[in-house]
Structures are given as structure tokens and as C-alpha cells.
Amino acid sequence: MKKFLLFFIILLTPSSFLSAKIYHWKKGTTFLSFLRNHGISQKLYYDLDDDDKELLAEIRARQSYSIKKSKRQTTILIPVTDELQVKIIKRGKKGSKISLEPIPFEILKGSIYLKINKSVFKELYQKTHSMGLIKSLKRAYRTINLHKMKKGDTLTIFYEQKRRKGKAISNPKILASLITINKQKFYSYLADDGRYYDSLGKEYRAIKKTFTPYLRPINRCRISSSFTHRRFHPILKRYKAHLGIDYAAHRGTPIRATAKGKIISKGRRGGYGKCITIQHSNGLRSLYAHMSRYRKGIRVGSRVSQGTIIGYVGSTGRSTGPHLHFGMYKNGKAVNPARYVRVKRHRRIVNRLKGKEYRQLRKKVALYRSKFKRVTKTGGNPILVKNGKYLFTKKAKKS
Questions:
Q1: Considering 15, 299, 340, 382, which has the largest number of Cβ atoms within 10 A of its Cβ?
Q2: Would you state the torsion angle of the CA atoms of residues 78, 80, 81, 84, taken in this order, to the nearest 10 degrees?
Q3: pLDDT tens-place string over residues 164-216
Q4: Residue 371 within a domain
Q5: Which residue range is the domain that position 137 belongs to?
Q6: CA 276, CA 299: separation in Å to the nearest integer?
């Protein structure tokens, strides 16, 4: 019942703005000029932190936004990304408030069973028209060559996808899946830590090759937070962008330059604490934040080679523990570092869940055990993609 009510609330939330008027962001408009044109104090902007200011700079021309007026206040909603929007409330003499909030969405649940005839990817696409589901499948089985699946092999997937106004706003998230290759079963379950494990809590990874165009800046670490335009900040207790990747590591772990370049800034920078910025070729810059200290001899203007130690992991600035915040910028705009720090793999290794995490995974295994059997008979209820973006569900026929 609680899940139904939550789903119902999510669906109804946008309806409160049906009376709002829709406008489009004019070319050449900055956020500061927008505030000025609407009689709102520019102090709202200057009180924001650097991450939020960077995010606001990404509002593009023709972006639609809404303004709803009532006797007491004016509410302005400006989508900045697919998941995050700026909310400005203007209350006349009482002043104005600004916040970053998630944009309401609904979640569709899907399932599918396929008995492969020739090509798993081609047949999965024919059933769903979703390239995103194919990408998610590859992630769930990143150490298995799915191209080896042949006639008679099977694929079963339970997944979900976010939808807003009928359109997909993310790739599907696979919750549980099973593939059979030459009658050998391979299960994959999404655990609470966002990683995929088999039925016994084993995670399959691979060892990286020694060379990559852009190095991971630290070794012996784990990704504690990925690049996203919408994250609930653990300290600020609100939604904000996270324009980089956080690598959790022990204090004092060496930090290395991701590629050769020139150091263009060094020093404290607000919530980033002690940080260094390096200018690379092709308009790329890299940012290394929350350092405990810098390496001796490193100064602005220094040229460094790929892999050069520039500092050490710490927790300076706004931080919950020792880690490196690693950001990359292309011509001044924040980009996902994962697009550049590509790790090529050639050998599998195995980790295993223990304790509470293992018990939680085993509950999921038990939950899906009967579901796997059921969907084999029905063929599932896949989420279908129409015109490359609109989503809907329709009972599938048995494969």
C-alpha cells in the first residue's frame, strides 16, 4: 500500500503546476540576468557554492521553464538536467528563496524472457527497441562475452526504468537477471551498493592493462560517488550536482596526474579544500580536490608527466572522510571523467559479500527464484520504446 501511495504521489506532483505558464530560455540569457529581469535579488546566485553555479551555467537556449503566480508568491521551475531543477520562490517583501530539487518521475517495472535464435542483442532490441537495456545488460555481465550466446541459450531480465511525461530519462536498471550459455547458468543481482553479484554474493571483476590514455589518479581505491547531476549531499542534506568522481582511499594515498599537462591552479577552493587543476591538451582540464597536502616542488606553472605524484589524499574542505574528488572539464564544461579514464580489462578476479550485505542479497535471490520460473512461461512484460524515447508496457507473448 505504501509503495502504491508513493507511486501515486509521484504521478500527481506535476499536476500542481498545470496552471503555470511555460516559457523558453532566451539565447544569451545568463542566470544573473534572468534574476535581474524578474526583480529577484542576485544575492541568491552569489550565495550558491561553486558546484551549483557551474550547474546553472549549463542552462541552454530554448530550455522550457514554468512560472506560476498566486496572490502570495511566484514559483519558477527551471529544469537544468533530466533529473534536477532550480526552484525559485519569490514572496514580494519577504524576499526570495532558491533550491535545487529532483524533478518528479515515475518508475516502470519490466521483465522479459528470450530463447535465443541467432543474436541476443538483435533479438532483445526487436522485443523492446531499447538500446539502453542492451547497455545495462553488458554492465551486469561485464566479464562474460555475450556475443558467444547462440541458438538455444536463454536470457531472463527483471528491470525498471524512470519515465517523465512518457519519455525515458535514464537507461533501464537491471535488478536481477539470468543467462544460460550452453546450459550453464549465470545469475546477476543488483546489490544495495550498486554492484552486481551472483547468487552466492560473488562479484566478478577484471584486472586492467597497464596503459590507458588517461590514468585513474589513485590506486587501491573504490568509487564512493559517481558523476551525476542529481545527488543528495550527505553534509548539506539537499540535492545538488556532483560534477566528478569520488575515489575513497586511505589518507596519504598518492595522487597522480591523469595525463601530462601544466598546473594552472593550486590552493584552497571553498568546499573542495586543497586542490590542484591541470590543463591538458584538447581543451581538457583535470581537478584534484580534498588533498591533505601537496607534493614538494609542485607549483603553478609546473609541467607534469602522466603519472606524476602531485599530492596526497585527505579530507580538507567539505568532506565526510578521506577521498579524492576527481573532476574533468572540456572547454570549461564539466564532463564525466569515466568517458576519458577508460580501463581496459583482461582477467577476472572475484570479491564476495559478507555479513549483513550477504544476507540482504540472499533475500533477493529467494524473492526472484519463483519469478524466474514464472516469466519463463509468460515471456514477461517488457517496457517498450516507441519513436526512440516514449515508454509503455504491453504483455509479451511467450517466446
A1: 382
A2: -60
A3: 888 888 889 999 999 999 999 999 999 988 889 999 988 876 555 545 678 89
A4: yes
A5: 106-209+345-393
A6: 9
